[in-house]
Specification:
Blueprint lengths: L1 H24 L3 H9 L3 H18 L1 H4 L20 E3 L3 E11 L6 E18 L5 E6 L15 H37 L1 H16 L2 H10 L7 H16 L1 H14 L3 H8 L4 H37 L11 H6 L4 H6 L7 H22 L5
Helix pairs in contact: 2-14, 3-5, 3-14, 5-6, 5-8, 5-9, 5-11, 6-9, 7-8, 8-11, 9-11, 10-11, 11-14
């Protein structure tokens, strides 16, 4: 009897496995990738975090309580204020009182518990613009900088630049890397040697000095928008080499496969073989590489702006905010100006987790 039960159980497991394999065989490649990807909890969390960051960056004028360049010299270097709650007053912040430091002659701000300012949702400012929250009195949840500008608002607005630099830069790098990598792997010979030697030449230069040299080459009279696109172009021209080499390796493996040989025998041209047979096989790999390249682009823009060679005021980015916090006096007296490093850290780590999850999902040999 025990033997019959064991055999019956094994037969049931085999039947379930067969049904599962049958179901998998009916799924498309994209459905298989999603099925594997959703098993990664960290990948899903990272994707959700990035979606939230991009939504906030796009809607920064609504989510930020102030304009990023709203200057108030009288409220410079205000420390972060805390939100308070009570059933009779709701959400509120304490008002500010200032005293002048006799040594530095700078105004120092403290919170006055006897005076409060309510915080309202969907606040309408003096210009008639709606914000997610706001207050009639001073409300600086992350403090202010040396010009009295709200640091939280500047971080939210700065994310629009820093995070879109990564997207635009990676898009341009994907175009260059995919095209040149495919050409190098498909034709081989002197074309392959020429492209690979050029990639090695780019890789031989240290990244930061090369970024500094190209960033310093931008005309000083350019506007903030022109500098923004100039930085994006620089990062793209430098970052395509790694992708091109990986696409080349994929194409070298695919070009000798039976389906490619059959297409050649059927009289298909080079363009048809590349666009219909070789590049589609690299799409999943390209998507994974793109998610891993975006953090490098963000860090590149941050490094250039931190060194004073990237985005220029009045435009702001996370790198510009960190450049303003690089003095030793900031670390000693105004440590809250280092808050812009937190979103950089979160976004970079999230992209890395997302890229790892996509890489595992796109692997046809993964479980």
């Amino acid at each position: 009897m025990a033997s019959d039960k064991t055999n019956h159980t094994e037969a049931g497991e085999i039947a379930e496995e067969f049904d599962s394999m049958t179901d998998l065989g009916q799924l498309s490649y994209r459905q298989l990738i999603w099925r594997r990807f959703r098993k990664s909890r960290m990948g899903l969390i990272a994707g959700a975090i990035l979606i939230v960051f991009y939504v906030i960056a796009i809607g920064a004028p609504f989510f930020a309580p102030y304009h990023y360049n709203a200057i108030n010299i009288r409220l410079r270097h205000v420390p972060p204020q805390k939100l308070h709650f009570s059933f009779d007053k709701g959400v509120y912040v304490y008002n500010l009182q200032s005293t002048r430091n006799p040594e530095t002659l700078e105004l120092e701000f403290t919170q006055d518990p006897t005076k409060t300012d309510p915080v309202r949702l969907f606040y309408k400012d003096a210009d008639g613009k709606r914000h997610l929250f706001g207050s009639d009195g001073p409300m600086f949840l992350l403090g202010t900088d040396r010009m009295g500008r709200d640091l939280l608002s500047r971080i939210l607005y700065g994310g629009r630049v820093s995070m879109t630099v990564g997207l635009i830069g990676v898009f341009l790098s994907l175009i260059l890397g995919s095209i040149l990598g495919t050409i190098s792997g498909y034709w081989g010979g002197w074309v392959d040697n020429l492209i690979q030697r050029f990639i090695e030449l780019l890789a031989a230069f240290p990244s930061i000095p090369l970024w500094m040299a190209l960033g310093a080459a931008l005309p000083p009279g350019w506007s903030s928008i022109q500098v923004y696109f100039g930085i994006t172009l620089i990062l793209s021209l430098i970052g395509w080499g790694g992708l091109a080499r990986q696409v080349r390796g994929k194409v070298l493996a695919y070009r000798e496969q039976d389906f490619v040989m059959a297409a050649r025998a059927a009289g298909s041209g080079h363009w048809h073989i590349i666009t219909r047979h070789l590049l589609p096989g690299c799409y999943s790999h390209i998507i994974v590489i793109a998610t891993l390249m975006i953090p490098g682009m963000i860090l590149g823009e941050t490094a250039l702006s931190f060194l004073g060679l990237g985005i220029r005021p009045p435009m702001t980015s996370w790198g510009v905010l960190l450049e303003e916090a690089q003095r030793v006096t900031v670390l000693l007296h105004y440590p809250w100006l280092l808050f812009p490093a937190i979103p950089v850290l979160i976004v970079v780590i999230s992209f890395n987790f997302l890229g790892d999850a996509l890489r595992d999902a796109a692997d046809p040999y993964s479980d």
